[in-house]
Design brief:
Distance between the termini: 41 Å
Structural class: alpha/beta
Radius of gyration: 20 Å
Number of helices: 10
Strand content: 5-15%
Order of helices and strands: HEEEHEHHEHEHEHEHHH
């Protein structure tokens, strides 16, 4: 709530993303309990320095409990003054584990067909709306293509997006891939704006706002995405670590003054997944804002 209050004092909105990390949780962080997933399929990589464990398949009463718990989490966010909540349905976490045919092998009403695999997410939304009302701003971040053999495809994602709009969702943020994808998503070798086409594909089938993201760190590119009607909003993350004044400099017509993000991932992603405070190769103030001050030379 203190964070939200400060944001509001400066005239900006504050949103939060809510995620249940499913099979990527680890027993050492769960008091010894086994992580859970739609099906007992092990994570194939190390996340946050912890090896993947075999998850336990969720029982239907547990599924309904998670839905109630997430709805209560959204209620607390609303009570704290948060302006919008985003559901994480990407990255390979629990919601996408239900959506993906790779990780969801359930024979019941939550598995097999796409209609069944969507049921978990749609039930989430319904429970949240029951708890905080249908007018409270709610969005989801989806992975439009898993970039994995036999995985979630853009065609399926278009159907999911239409179902989300029908369920009353207010916006959709679009990414690609996830933790186990075979396609590079964020390093500097990935061309800027490489995955905007995924957002455009979703925008073509829904009328609610669609947000493009990933490797968009240039204001001219961001503006062109909007002008070309490829998305309604552009998400910028790492570039705001490199230069928190990115939007102000763009607004003032000073794009050459922006300290660029080079997508090195060393201080942000790499340290984050080692449970360490983040830094930034391009910005020595990140993580040390109260300790370091830049003043004019004598």
């Amino acid at each position: 709530q203190r964070l939200v209050d400060v944001a509001h004092q400066h005239g900006t909105k504050r949103g939060v993303q809510i995620a249940h990390i499913g099979k990527y949780a680890h027993s050492s962080l769960l008091g010894g309990e086994q992580p859970v997933s739609p099906s007992a399929i092990q994570a194939n990589l190390t996340v946050h320095g912890l090896p993947g464990e075999m998850p336990r398949e969720l029982a239907i009463p547990e599924i309904k409990l998670i839905q109630r718990n997430i709805a209560n989490t959204v209620k607390r966010a609303k009570g704290a003054g948060v302006d919008i909540v985003e559901l994480n349905a990407c990255s390979g976490y629990l919601i996408r584990e239900f959506l993906s045919p790779i990780t969801n092998k359930r024979p019941d009403e939550y598995g097999c067909s796409l209609e069944n695999r969507m049921r978990f997410l749609l039930a989430f939304i319904g429970k949240i709306q029951e708890t905080v009302g249908k007018d409270y701003p709610l969005m989801a971040r989806i992975s439009a293509n898993e970039f994995l053999p036999e995985g979630h495809t853009p065609d399926e994602s278009a159907i999911v997006a239409q179902a989300l709009e029908k369920a009353g969702l207010h916006a959709i943020s679009v990414v690609g891939g996830g933790h186990e994808t075979m396609v590079p998503l964020s390093p500097m070798a990935v061309p800027r704006g490489a995955f905007v086409y995924l957002a455009q594909g979703i925008k073509n089938v829904v009328s609610i706002p669609v947000i493009a993201s990933a490797r968009i760190n240039d204001p001219v590119m961001a503006e062109n995405i909007l002008r070309d009607d490829r998305a309604d909003f552009v998400a910028i993350a790492r570039a705001l670590l490199a230069d928190p004044d990115f939007p102000n400099k763009a607004k003032d017509g000073r794009p050459d003054d922006i300290r660029p993000c080079v997508a090195c991932n060393q201080g942000c992603f790499d340290l984050l997944f080692e449970w360490k405070p983040i830094t930034c190769l391009m910005n020595p103030l990140v993580g040390c804002e109260k300790e370091r001050q830049i003043t004019p030379a004598a």
